[in-house]
Amino acid sequence: MTTATAVALGVLQGITEFLPVSSSGHLALARALLGYDLEPGMTFEIAVHFGSFCSIVVYFRKRLARLFHGLAGAIVRCGSSFAAYRADPSARFTAIVLVSMLPAVAVGAMTKRYVEHAFVNPALTAALLLVTGTALFSTRFASRRRAGRAGPEDAAPQVPTPERNAAGLAPGRPVTLRSGVWIGVAQAVAILPGISRSGATISTGLWMGVSRDELAEFSFLMVLPVLAGATLLESLELVLAGRPVVTTALAVGFAASFVTGYLALASLIALLKRSKLHYFGYYCWALGLIGLFYFLTARV
Fold first, then answer.
1. What are the distances in angstroms from CA 130 to CA 13, 94, 123, 126, 190?
2. What pLDDT does 128 receive?
3. What is the mean pLDDT of residues 264-293?
4. Contact between residue 93 and residue 169 where contact means Cβ atoms under 8 Å apart
């Protein structure tokens, strides 16, 4: 892989990671179009996803600091009282984040080899983009469903609450343990290239009645443990195999993903919270159909 290619793919990852359009799907299609060997595995994908991980940490550094501070205080105050933990917003939010990552960890560990094969099949990636588009378009009806059952509490002005101050959560209907588990299942499915992680998690949350503001933040924070774990495991595999973990292409891809990811997150977080998600469905449908036509006809 050339340095220019690594920069291009890193920039692509950084921009698309925070839009519900599947960054992994864009990477797989771009690599196929660029024509370089897709067999080495997921090492480059791990590097650029780690760049996105770092951009999330830097962007949410103040909220993460408040969350960890609140959690540490909860541990000191609550001791072994389960009821006290449930009543503490920092402890409850952290627990939901950790539980939500379990499906992705389990699926990733059991299906890593099959997922790597999926990355070398651009036609499959294009088809899965159609699935992502459908999921995103369905949120149009999820919003109508919620609007139809809205009560007085939904119309009340959103103001800062003690829960927001303690845990850094956005106001609105919070993510519960039940919705967190289902959102985690959606994140596990998004391990496939072409299935948008943010699109899948936010779509699932909207259908479960979680507020858009809450989902925009939860969707980014819940992926941090998964990205950190995946990066660590991949790096250990490279070390045990006797290959260097850091190469020029990986370092350049990481840097490009981090910088553009931070800029994209800073610019687009408001869009993810307030825009109509189903508009991104049209883009995924168009890209999926174009990809299917190109890669299927290219083999004829």
1. 19, 33, 11, 7, 13
2. 93
3. 83
4. yes
| Burial class of residue 117, CB neighbours in 10 A (0-12, 13-18, 19+) | exposed
The domain segmentation of the chain, as residue ranges, is 3-148+158-298
Check residue 166 and give its pLDDT: 39
Residues with Cβ within 8 Å of residue 77, at least 6 apart in sequence = 84, 88
By the 8 A CB rule, do 41 and 241 touch?
no
Cα–Cα distances in angstroms (integers) from residue 85 to residues 91, 122, 175, 189, in the given order: 6, 46, 16, 30
Contact predicate 199/136, CB 8 Å: yes
**Is the Cβ–Cβ distance between 249 and 3 less than 8 Å?**
yes
77-116 burial, b if ≥16 CB within 10 A, otherwise e? Answer: ebeeeeeebeebbbbbbbbbbeebbebbbebbeeebeebb
Q: How many residues does the chain have?
A: 300
More confident residue, 71 or 222: 222
Q: What pLDDT shows up at residue 130?
A: 95
Q: pLDDT of 83-138, one tens digit each?
A: 656 667 777 888 888 888 888 888 877 776 666 666 678 888 999 999 999 999 99
Q: What span, in angstroms and rounded, lies between the C-alpha atoms of 191 and 170?
A: 27
More confident residue, 175 or 233: 175
134, two tokens? 């459908």
Rounded to 5 degrees, φ, ψ at 63 are -70, -40
Angle at alpha carbon of residue 94, lines to 206 and 256, rounded to 5° = 75
Q: Is residue 219 helix, strand or coil? A: helix
Q: Give me the pLDDT at residue 288, please.
A: 92
CA angle 271, 206, 64 (to 5 degrees): 60
- CA dihedral sign, ordered 11, 117, 184, 283: positive
User: Tell me: the pLDDT tens digits for 256-266?
Assistant: 999 998 988 88
